[in-house]
Write a structure and sequence with these properties.
This protein is of the alpha/beta class. Helices cover 34% and strands 26% of the residues. The protein has one domain: GTP cyclohydrolase II (Rossmann fold, 3-Layer(aba) Sandwich). Bound molecules: zinc ion.
Length: 197
């Protein structure tokens, strides 16, 4: 899967000014973003978050997951050191899409966990792809990451496509009573590394 660079622009945010870079994925019609701050192409490892789109969490403030809080925390962490990158990948609901996510939430309202709900809809628990990251990082001159993630699968995926992870930085934020079970399921069933208090 390859991506085509489209254009870059400024993106002022409450955390400071990022530069937003757009990439097309011709095979799927998906459109991905990279947000960078500061100099990221000097060969030093870059503080990074690889974030899959979660419209409900990122834009609507949903407390069913921890995505929105993680995205904000990652942007704040990058602003604090003055340079870094967020790859914002448009693969909603661990890859099942927005409408299927509503269906999955409906099943979860009836008692299923996030993995069971996806499986009942006929999907694997996690359909996310990360191949496009390589081309996006290459375009921006980035080879090494200090990756903010709790997800070992993401680290493995980066190693597979040849992106060097020099350090994993945990990103534990946004816990609330509504997503307690969701986070616990990610730990038990998807292998996420999460320290509970
Ligand atoms: Zn989410």
């Amino acid at each position: 899967m390859s991506v085509t660079y489209v254009a870059s622009s400024k993106l002022p945010t409450p955390h400071g000014e990022f530069v937003m870079h757009g990439f097309d994925e011709p095979g799927t019609g998906k459109e991905h973003l990279a947000l960078t701050m500061g100099d990221v192409s000097n060969g030093e490892p870059v503080l990074a978050r690889i974030h899959s789109e979660c419209l409900t969490g990122d834009a609507l403030g949903s407390l069913r997951c921890d995505c929105g809080a993680q995205l904000q925390a990652a942007m704040a962490a990058i602003a604090e050191v003055g340079h870094g990158i967020i790859l914002y990948l448009r693969q909603e609901g661990r890859g099942i899409g927005l409408m299927n996510k509503v269906r999955a939430y409906h099943l979860q309202d009836a008692g299923l966990d996030t993995v069971q709900a996806n499986e009942q809809l006929g999907f694997a628990p996690d359909l996310r792809q990360y191949d496009m990251c390589n081309a996006m990082l290459e375009h921006l001159g980035i080879t090494k990451l200090r990756l903010m993630t709790n997800n070992p699968r993401k680290i493995k995926a980066m190693e597979t496509i040849g992106v060097e992870i020099v350090e994993r930085m945990p990103l534990q934020t946004g816990q609330n009573p509504h997503n307690e079970r969701y986070i616990a399921t990610k730990v038990w069933k998807l292998g996420h590394m999460y320290k509970t208090a």
